[in-house]
Design brief:
alpha+beta; Arc Repressor Mutant, subunit A; three-stranded antiparallel beta sheet; two-stranded antiparallel ribbon; 9 helices; globular
Length: 267
């Protein structure tokens, strides 16, 4: 979708609130109307615009109620600075995309050769040493495992005030442009991969609830058993809501509660 169209569509606060609500669970018109505090007719008008843009779609249950849900995974990036304005939207990258060949600078340690007060000889020597060291460290640190991926970015670049050499500044400019592009790609990959994981969890759990909330609860006890109150404190959530989620997870044999009243991952 064109970013300008998407920005216009999301410029309306009620449409943003509808999408926020639907990101937690599918809803029918009356639910949305009560949540927004606006008439069903106004809700239908907003939903129609979102449907026309293929952001929202609907299904009908056995009681002939039409439920609306978010239809696709989309990322919008907006950049505003004194030197430019830009917006772009794109589907997340495919999970099959080989990120290793695309992200040369995703982990980067740039040590500038020229700093104020250095002698020419010392600068030359340090420049070669640092360039060699930097080249050795410029390795892609994007590793995909069966259930997770870690993207680490380390950036150390001297400020323009520390260097007056135009060649050095332009090298930094080029590298940072490359890094910006790679980070955008990595964010698309992460966004898509997170959605894949949540979709899988949603299918297995079959929960008519906020699947991300369930994922947060499960992630809290992945490596260490915790009580309901400890889980609630960790994710800053209501204890009763956490207890209800844990009971649902236990029903599906995702978690168990031991004699010590601590919750653990069951599988």
């Amino acid at each position: 979708m064109d970013s300008a169209v998407l920005l216009d569509l999301l410029g309306n606060e009620n449409r943003r609130r509808i999408l926020r609500l639907l990101s937690h669970k599918p809803c029918y018109v009356t639910e949305i109307s009560e949540y927004l505090g606006v008439s069903p007719k106004a809700v239908i008008d907003h939903l129609q615009k979102l449907e026309d843009a293929d952001l929202v779609e609907s299904r009908t249950d056995e009681r002939r109620r039409k439920y609306f849900h978010i239809a696709r995974n989309l990322r919008l990036e907006v950049s505003v600075s004194p030197h430019g304005f830009g917006a772009k939207s794109a589907y997340p990258a495919s999970r099959s995309l080989d990120m290793r060949g695309r992200c040369q600078y995703l982990t980067i340690d740039v040590l500038d050769a020229i700093t104020d007060g250095d002698s020419e000889d010392t600068t030359d020597s340090n420049s070669k040493s640092r360039r060699s060291s930097a080249q050795n460290r410029k390795r892609t640190q994007v590793h995909e495992e069966s259930e997770s991926r870690t993207v680490e970015t380390t950036e150390r670049v001297s400020s323009p005030s520390q260097s007056t050499d135009i060649s050095t500044l332009m090298q930094q400019y080029r590298r940072l442009n490359d890094l910006e592009s790679e980070l955008s790609l990595a964010q698309r990959w992460v966004h898509g991969r997170l959605t894949d994981i949540l979709d899988t969890l949603d299918t297995q759990l079959d929960a008519e609830a906020d699947i991300r909330f369930y994922a947060d609860v499960l992630a809290t006890i992945t490596t260490e058993a915790k009580s309901t109150s400890a889980i609630a404190s960790h994710i800053n959530a209501d204890g009763d809501r956490v207890e209800t989620a844990l009971e649902h997870l236990a029903h599906h044999e995702f978690v168990t509660r031991g004699p010590d009243r601590q919750w653990r991952i069951d599988k």
